[in-house]
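Exercise 7.
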Amino acid sequence: MEEFRYAIFLMHPDKCPDGYNSGFYQHFWSSCSEDIFKDCCEWLETGQFTASLNSSNITLIPKGNIQTIMKDWRPMTLCNVLYKFISCLVFKRTHIMQHKLTHVDIQRDLIHAT
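Solution. The predicted structure, written as tokens, is:
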């Protein structure tokens, strides 16, 4: 449970495209932590997200002062806060073992191949 708490409090409290931002979950952690823990464990075990969790909004951010062609815009994907939360957990778990998952020789070969 502490791993989940750490991940939610690591997130910026005011960034969220829709629904509840991470600040909401941080503020009400004592009330909602068990439900989040149960759902997240299920998602991590099955690899299956609900459709609403797996959806994102895409927006275009203008570059510069004048936007006349598509090159003048930068796309940005706005993910659901619980999706970001799960991503943070997965990253944290794999980051610990990253040195075992990648080898310097393999990385060097991949870089030279591109």
